[in-house]
Please model this.
Amino acid sequence: GPCTQCSCSSGKEPTKDPSHTKKKENGDGLFVPKIFFGTRTHKQIAQISRELKRTAYCSVPMTILSSRDYTCIHPVVSNSTTNRNEMCVDLLEGKHGKSCAYYHGVHKLVEHHGLQSAHGVYQAWDIEDLVSLGRKLRACAYFAARELMVGADIVFCPYNYLLDPQIRDSMDINLKGQVVILDEAHNIEDCARESVSYGVTESQLRAAREELDFMVSNNIRHKDHEPLRAVCCSLI
Model:
């Protein structure tokens, strides 16, 4: 039955309350906020997307933001044990005379009917669906998911995509005026701590100290590098 808490129960048109009507910056049309749904792990995103398929909202435009570890399909980068992000950037910039053919096929994946039903209605999907379709079309699933965010009403992602300002900037996520849902929010404290923490090995510290020794001994910005060297030495 109709709800009793708003104007739809009486059949009246809702009043135009400016506090509830958000206009676009150019003043045209309504601004509809996106729902950013944050989870602790990528595995939980797969569970939520399965549940979404079972609801009446399964046709809502959506996307899933995840790292290259889960979505990269480039045969060299995806199988590498080194920093996949740096390798991807090198390919995009054309370093070493090589480029990424999968990146240039992003549009094929974004526009593919596999993410929609036969009548153009969207259907819920998970990361595995996107990656599988990306391999079939030889198109990058990582950047396709980012492209789909533009028209998505629901965006699923891990916590740190919403909490870490550096990741938000790199993924072009703007949370102003949007709806944010955090699943199992009692884990937020640990995630926030991780976002402002950094792990470093003893070998990295020793390598940094050697470089700083060289800087100091050659009188290169001595007043800046001397305190840094002292920090490295004390940590070692």
Q: What stands out?
A: The first helix runs from residue 42 to 53. The CA atoms of residues 49 and 126 lie 6 Å apart. The domain at 35-196 is CATH 3.40.50.300 (Rossmann fold). DSSP finds eleven helices and four strands in the chain.
